[in-house]
Amino acid sequence: MTPTKNSAENSFRPIVGIDLGTTNSAAAYIHKQKPKMLTLKNGERLMPSVVLLNQNGQIIAGEEARNALVAMPERTKAAVKRSMGEKITFSMGDQAYTPEELSAFILKEIKRSVDKELGEGDKEAVITVPAYFTNAQRQAVKKAGELAGFVVERIINEPTAAALAYGLQQGDEDKHILVYDLGGGTFDVSIVELMGGIMEVKASAGNNQLGGEDFDWLLVDWLADKVVAEHGTDPREDIRGKARLKEEAEKIKKDLSFQSSVDVSVPVITVKNNAPVGLDCTIQREEFVSLITPLLDETKEKLSHVLEDAGLAPGDVDEILLVGGSTKIPQVQQLITSFFNKQPKTDINPDEAVALGAAVQAGIKSGAFSDNGLIVTDVAPFSMGIAVLSAQPGNVGKPGAFHAIIPRNTTIPVTRTERYTTTSHNQPGVEIEIYQGENKWVKDNYFLNEFLLEGLPLKPAGEEAVDVTFRYNLNGILEVSAKSVSTGAEMSVTIEDALDRSSEEAFYDSLAKVEAAFQPEEHEDASDEELNLFTPLENDNQEEGRERPDSLQDLIKEADEWKRRFTKELENRDGETEKQINAVINRLAAAAEEKNTEVLNEAIESAIDLAVDLEL
Ligand code: ADP
Ligand code: MG
Questions:
Q1: Across-strand partners of 150?
Q2: How many CA atoms lie within 13 A of 87 on its CB side?
């Protein structure tokens, strides 16, 4: 690594490291030679990767969007990371957004916090992606960063970032580091090898549909089954009930990471015959563990896979890093300890490790550290090559065979050239068809691009040669060129990155769309109203003053029921609580009088909140 020009701390360009997660996103930067988490919206270090289009047509990313997720599925989008690189759009309200645009909203919210902490102006960013992300997926993340207004300096692999966060690049020893990352929606396990100051991902495996959210839903079922058994009504059929249970389940799950049992006491989950239905029970940690054991066993299988891929035995692993919020579950730590017969490292908060490591990479890049001799590299996650005739001795050869120029797991950046010859008489040109994948035939692999190199001298088959060069850089950008050996004529393409006119226009269209929809100022008061979980969905396009009579009747009944319960409760209360109860009763009465569903819903919600607070 070249020594840096500047040594004064404050003369560095600040580059931020961003973990754009499936469930949560986070960012960090180097402060006084150390990575530091950035304080995001609402004063938190993690921000839910959820986007909401509110009723004012504005986009809001983060906690408020997450709170609206279950109740307003048609206005929210979560886990967009799973769709990165796909050419699709998601409808939200009356709008449709691409995965890049939705991710850009999340990144833009992060950028707002970055600007607050580090000052306005251009910001460079290092953004992390799972090790298995394809070229197209990496490009999509890069584009999302650019749409959000970042200059995307580099895209790095999450496990590499985690290893950097632990400072494992320091010291001279060569090491094998296993990174077990169990997040909210995905599980990834990777082997990172540190050798001669070079860090690379050797192998990775996982399941992008397995994570803490699945544990929450298993717990939702467990809780709901109890309600069904006790009250004969299924709270999952009521959208509010489902939302409330999901919220509760996640809380219980987290508590069970620190306690051996949790007393569940939810006064209101749903309503039956206008009477609130709640749940009181106790759940033991073992009960929760038995629910999630099949899923944890699956992660164990992947551990074996990844070791096999890397040609390692469990005993060859020098360090084990636990990453992702779900590794806080003690059973996960036990699983790892018994598998490797060794304790994993957990001293860095597992849900912050990736962002911190991205910041370390950013710091290395910007020169915020004094020279530490580290070169971070990654590997090509897939083989990349071209279509050729299948070479079979004594055979003419069948078209459509795949020939890898950069085999999978090649350390990048890399440049490789292969020479090919013409296959027919007087062949005037060659079609270079570029694919990515591990299959023998190109039809089974992923098509990236193609171009034609023309003007070859007309010669008998096999007498004209073309050199094809693949250049793959650390951002996962692939440049392919083909050069006629005899004439020197050359053609090249840059996959995905070279914005042609139409995609450039599309980029600026997206940029305008992202800018226009993103909520300009924080206005929490206003958003509180819109994001209320209990805002009735039907209200979306409703004109003021025109309620649907049946739901209105139901709501008035529900409000009356609450009024009755609280009036009764007044007998046992005094002081501040009495005042709060009276306020709620008055609000319910006024709402019933006004006969407006929205107002009624709000009043009922405040009643529910108070009931929860007072543990009624
Ligand atoms: P992702 O990488 O998918 O964006 P995170 O690493 O932030 O996600 O992990 C989020 C998941 O971790 C959520 O499902 C959350 O409920 C879970 N989680 C966070 N803290 C705990 C805890 N103390 N115990 C169990 N699970 C937790
Ligand atoms: Mg993560």
A1: 123
A2: 4
Domain ranges of the chain: 8-171+349-375+502-517, 212-290, 384-487, 551-613
- Residues 8-171+349-375+502-517, CATH architecture: 2-Layer Sandwich (3.30)
The pLDDT of residue 97 is: 97
Minimum-distance ligand to the CA of 251? 1
pTM score, two decimals? 0.70
DSSP state of 7: -
Q: Which fold has domain 384-487?
A: Substrate Binding Domain Of DNAk; Chain A, domain 1 (2.60.34)
- Ligand 1 environment, Cβ below 6 A: 21-24, 46, 183-186, 211-213, 250, 253-254, 257, 324-326, 328-329, 351
Query: In three state form, how does the secondary structure of 573-602 look?
Result: CCHHHHHHHHHHHHHHHHHHHHCCHHHHHH
19 is catalytic: yes
Which pLDDT band holds residue 539 (cuts at 50, 70, 90)? very low
Q: Which residue has the higher pLDDT, 240 or 529?
A: 240
- Looking at the structure, give the CATH architecture of the domain made up of residues 212-290: Alpha-Beta Complex (3.90)
Instruction: Tell which wins on pLDDT, 391 or 38.
Output: 38
Instruction: For residue 297, report the distance from its CA to the centre of ligand 2, in Å.
Output: 20
Which of 64, 100, 181, 378 is catalytic? The answer is: 181
Query: Which tokens is 103 given?
Result: 């991710």
pLDDT band, very low/low/confident/very high, at 16 (cuts 50, 70, 90): very high
| Nearest of 404, 452, 206 to residue 309 by alpha carbon | 206
Among 20, 326, 328, residue to substitute to test ligand 1 (most atoms within 8 Å of Cβ): 326
Which of 133, 250, 252, 254 has the most ligand 1 atoms within 8 A of CB, as the residue to mutate?
254
- Nearest CA-CA partner of 492 in 475, 468, 474, 473: 468
Query: Can you tell me the mean pLDDT for 342-348?
Result: 93
Q: Whose CA is nearest to atom 24 of ligand 1?
A: 254
